[in-house]
Amino acid sequence: MNKRMYELGSKRSVIREIFEFGKQRAAEVGADKVFDFSLGNPSVAPPAVVEETLETLLKTENATALHGYTSAQGDLETRRAIASFIASKHGVKTDPDLIYMTCGAAASLTITLSAICNKGDEVITFAPFFTEYRVFTETAGAKLMELSSDPDTFQIDFDLLEKAFSERTAAVLVNSPNNPSGVVYSEETVKKLAAMLEKKSREYGKPIYLVTDEPYRELVYGGVKVPYLTAYYKNTVVCYSYSKSLSLPGERIGYIFVCPEAEDAKRLYFAVCGAGRALGYVCAPSLFQKMIAKCQGVTSDVSVYEKNRDLLVGALKEYGYTCVRPDGAFYLFVKALEEDANAFCERAKKYGLLLVPGDDFGCKGYVRIAYCVSPDMISRSLPYFKLLAEEYGR
Ligand code: PLP
Q1: Ligand 1 centre and the CA of 106: distance in Å?
Q2: Where would you tag: which of 87, 288, 351, 376 has the fewest CB atoms within 10 A of its CB?
Q3: From ligand 1's centre to the CA of 29, what distance in Å?
Q4: Helix, strand, coil percentages for the chain (3-state, nearest 5)
Q5: Edge-to-edge strands of the sheet including 356-357?
Q6: Cβ atoms within 10 Å, residue 222
Q7: How does pLDDT run across 280-303, given as a tens digit for each residue?
Q8: What are the DSSP calls for 237-301, one per residue?
Q9: Residues 190-199: pLDDT tens digits?
Q10: CA of 175, closest atom in ligand 1
């Protein structure tokens, strides 16, 4: 058997370990004494229109067609609906024939990185980052170059970035709103990044791609704007998913969008189709593609997440914790109250608080709190966060 695959499959991720521990603990001491902040599973139901559309499709469409194969790259009507939505919402050029339907962001990223990278290439990303980036990049035969971000803002540290490029750099991978920090890249950051990518592409005589992982695009609070990256840098590939915006992570639906202004956009798209084929990611779930075609512009009610953020950030700051206030997603990345975040998480467990150490996100000394839970659970957990801080003399 393949050794790498065995290793990937036999080792559970830290997040999954904590989640399993939480279930076991709840059975022992009662669910009301366990505050599981480990998983990024949306706690808000999908919008009613999503379920209504699915019902209508099931009642009115021909079942053979509805559940049958679509084109490998996805149903044309769906790709048209997405292309026209992106164009009207963000004022950018789109093309349905440069969209590839996928089984969520994980597939979007695996396909895109495999389409772009050759063996020995490098992909630059910024810590903290989604832990699976290492797996996706290695699967594409490339190496993930992990750069620290500005610790006060978690925006890009451009001095570090400037030094990280080499002739092996194939792509820069960004995620805004970010998992695990919740930070949204400002327009200033995006403009600087685009300018640096232009400069480095010229210097190395090849396009260096910008891959943008956007499952949290719609999960932003207080009117914060998330710049649409194809408007700033043409060699961009957007990796999107409806897992969080429509609360459908189990249904596995998303897409890849190649910017029409990218160099050799059509060839790049063919490479995406090739990677999809090679990885077995053809023909994303048909029923959900057809629903998506009718639900463009719809988003789950994210006001609960905003309420949770405000409750948690306000209380934790008062108790002596520090964190960058997140503008989006549903995560809070908090500085652990001791150097070793793993030891801190172990202490937190005593109070029933299940937090994820930041090490796997490429950032030691922090913990991630996924606040996609009920506001009631947050309120009940706060006294325990206070007791935990007091243990550290806060
Ligand atoms: N990228 C980021 C930043 C994520 O947080 C996640 C899931 O939590 C994914 C990608 C994978 O998303 P999906 O469930 O759509 O595959």
Answers
A1: 6
A2: 376
A3: 31
A4: 45, 15, 40
A5: 331-335, 366-370, 356-357
A6: 10
A7: 999 999 999 999 999 999 999 999
A8: EEEEESTTTTT-TTT--EEEEE-TTSTTHHHHHHHHHHHHHHHT--S--HHHHHHHHH-TT----
A9: 999 999 999 9
A10: 3
